Structure formats: structure tokens, C-alpha cells
């Protein structure tokens, strides 16, 4: 993904008029299931003004529900805030929500979550399944980019497709050379704002675009057969995914260093771990409630000042 194009795209979505439209769009969708007074935990590590976190907070208030924002980004606090506030809905990136599910399970904390909204939808199927089973809840998704404030659609309430936000965003499905494919064919998803179609963002997932009306009644263009990933380092990604699919592992960080694979694994003491690959550098340690925050919280994704 071209970083420069990405930040130009993000900047566009953070203009006041675009923010207002995004909040109204989210409120319309959240309003379909949020109950007045219900407490909703917002679990994003990134929450500058105009970010997804900020947009969701404003949209929840507009639905007369009560947003609870993760205060200090400690895993421990996430669990405590969910419990103390008796939240019944949670919104955030899938791996953070899975982390909360694992903490709940390990600590045997009674949480009664009835609705989970995953950002960065589509997420891999095992993540969605883990959330559905771990919380015994309904899972929906917003088609957005986590650190950006880009909200380009919402998961269909009935099928597993995504309805695009037609007024603001367009999608092209392209082949490996970047050539646009006809409707109905599977290919790479390229997103663009309708007000600036030259800002093209390959999001790294593949899908089929259809303009046929959805069985749910919506006439918005729809992405179906969504397949996650494609632009990341597939080996590292697959390893991280495999590790994170274990409930005994709260968090992990996988990268290729100078001498080979580097691995950091935060686990729950006394629980069975998967077989780990040999690595040039390996840290395996139990969760430290006093200090541990999500490892993937990268500071490198801040918007550069000059933009
Ligand atoms: Zn639908």
C-alpha cells in the first residue's frame, strides 16, 4: 500500500464535513440494534480526532447509548472497564476483542456481551467464530480501516456480505495487474473516495462486487465472498494468526529481524501452548497485568504533521 496515497485518503476523510457524514452513517447503522442507555465499550488503541474510535464515540452518543472508552490501553483495564460498567456491546479491532474474550475466559469474569462490532471487517473466519463462541453473542462488522477513520460500509444484517457506503465510497475489483474486472468476478478490492477517485487504496482483501439488490432489502452495492489478506507477509501473518487462535496466548509479536524470526508471546500462566517454531530471538512470558498493553499498537501509524 502506498503510504502517501493512504495518508492523503485519510486526510480527506478527516475534513469536518466528511466526519459529520461518517458519524451520521455509523449512528444510522448502530441505531438498528443499540438500546437507549446501553453501555458500549470502545476498544481502539488509536483514537485521535477523526479516527474510527472518535467516530464511533460520537455515533453511540447520537443513539442515546453510553460510550465507555478504554482509558489507558492496559489489557487489565479493558477487562475491568467491561465488567465494572456492565457493558453489553463492544466495538474494536478483532484481535483486541479476541484478547478481551481470552481475558474474560482466563479470569472467569462474568461479562454479558450481546453484540460485537468488529472494525476492519472482513476479518478471518476463525476470529469471527472465536468471538461468537467466546462471548455467545452476535457479531457484526464495519468495513473500515482501523487507524484511519475510513468507514466505507457495514456488514449486511442477514448475509455475510458488506454493504458499501455508496454515497461516499466506490470500489473497483481489479486483477493482479490492476486491470478492472467485470462485475461478478473475484479480485483485489480497491477503495476510493467518490470526491477524489484518484486516491486509490488497495485494501489487501479480495471479493466479488455485486449491484443486485440484497435479500435484506438494501440496494447498496455489495461485496460478497470476502477473503481476508493478501498484501501482508503471508508466512509471518499465518504464524501470528495461528498463535493468536490459541486461547492460551493473549498477544504475540512476530517479525523478521536481522538474524531471522523474532517472536514474543504473552501467555496465560499454566495453560497449554502450541508448538512454537525455532526462532533467532524468542520471548515467552506470562501476562503481566500491571504493564501489558497490546503489542501490535504501533506508533508508526500516526499521521505525519506536514500532511
Ligand atoms: Zn443485505
Describe the structure.
The protein has 307 residues and is of the alpha/beta class. The chain has 3 domains: 3-162, Rossmann fold, CATH 3.40.50.980; 164-227, Luciferase, domain 3 (Roll); 234-298, GMP Synthetase, Chain A, domain 3 (2-Layer Sandwich), CATH 3.30.300. It contains 7 helices and 14 strands. The chain has helices at residues 3-13, 16-30, 52-62, 75-84, 94-107, 125-135, 234-244; strands spanning 39-42, 66-69, 89-92, 115-118, 138-145, 150-155, 162-164, 169-174, 187-193, 201-210, 222-227, 249-257, 260-267, 281-286. The strands form 2 sheets. Strands 2-1-3-4-5-6-7-11-10-9-8 form an 11-stranded mixed sheet, with helices on both faces. Strands 12-13-14 form a 3-stranded mixed sheet. It is globular, with a radius of gyration of 19 Å. The two termini are 17 Å apart. Residues 156, 158-159, 163, 214, 216, 218 line the site of zinc ion.
Strand-residue fraction?
25-35%
Q: What fold name goes in the CATH topology slot of the largest domain?
A: Rossmann fold
Low-confidence stretches: 298-307
**How far from one another are the termini?**
17 Å
Number of domains: 3
CATH C-level of the largest domain: Alpha Beta
Mean pLDDT: 89
Q: What's the Cα radius of gyration?
A: 19 Å
What would CATH call the architecture of the largest domain? 3-Layer(aba) Sandwich
Measured as a percent range, the helix fraction is 25-40%
Order of helices and strands: HHEHEHEHEHEEEEEEEHEEE
Bound molecules: zinc ion
Could you say which structural class the secondary elements and strand pairing correspond to?
Answer: alpha/beta
Strand order of the largest sheet: 2-1-3-4-5-6-7-11-10-9-8
Number of distinct beta strands: 14
Q: What overall geometry do the principal axes of the alpha carbons give?
A: globular
Amino acid at each position: 500500500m502506498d503510504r502517501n496515497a493512504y495518508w492523503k485518503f485519510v486526510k480527506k476523510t478527516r475534513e469536518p464535513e466528511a466526519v459529520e457524514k461518517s458519524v451520521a452513517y455509523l449512528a444510522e447503522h448502530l441505531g438498528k440494534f443499540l438500546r437507549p442507555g446501553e453501555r458500549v465499550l470502545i476498544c481502539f488503541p488509536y483514537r485521535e480526532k477523526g479516527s474510527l474510535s472518535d467516530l464511533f464515540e460520537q455515533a453511540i452518543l447520537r443513539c442515546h447509548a453510553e460510550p465507555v472508552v478504554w482509558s489507558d490501553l492496559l489489557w487489565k483495564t479493558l477487562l475491568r472497564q467491561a465488567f465494572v460498567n456492565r457493558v453489553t456491546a463492544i466495538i474494536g479491532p478483532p484481535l483486541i476483542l479476541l484478547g478481551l474474550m481470552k481475558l474474560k475466559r482466563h479470569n472467569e469474569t462474568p461479562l454479558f456481551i450481546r453484540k460485537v462490532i468488529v472494525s476492519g471487517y472482513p476479518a478471518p473466519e476463525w476470529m469471527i467464530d472465536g468471538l461468537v463462541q467466546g462471548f455467545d453473542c452476535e457479531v457484526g462488522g464495519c468495513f473500515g480501516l482501523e487507524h484511519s477513520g475510513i468507514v466505507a460500509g457495514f456488514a449486511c444484517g442477514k448475509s455475510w456480505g458488506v454493504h458499501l457506503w455508496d454515497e461516499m465510497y466506490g470500489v473497483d475489483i481489479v486483477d493482479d495487474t490492476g486491470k478492472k474486472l467485470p462485475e461478478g468476478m473475484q479480485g483485489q478490492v480497491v477503495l476510493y473516495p467518490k470526491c477524489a477517485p484518484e486516491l486509490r487504496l488497495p485494501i489487501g482483501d479480495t471479493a466479488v462486487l455485486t449491484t443486485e439488490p440484497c435479500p435484506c432489502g438494501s440496494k447498496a452495492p455489495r461485496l460478497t465472498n470476502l477473503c481476508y489478506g493478501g498484501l501482508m507477509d503471508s508466512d509471518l501473518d499465518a504464524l501470528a494468526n495461528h498463535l493468536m487462535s490459541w486461547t492460551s496466548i493473549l498477544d504475540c509479536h512476530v517479525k523478521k529481524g536481522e538474524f531471522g524470526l523474532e517472536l514474543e508471546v504473552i501467555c496465560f500462566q499454566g495453560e497449554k501452548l502450541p508448538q512454537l517454531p525455532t526462532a533467532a530471538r524468542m520471548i515467552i512470558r506470562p501476562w503481566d497485568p500491571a504493564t501489558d498493553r497490546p503489542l501490535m499498537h504501533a506508533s508508526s501509524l500516526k499521521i505525519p504533521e506536514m500532511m
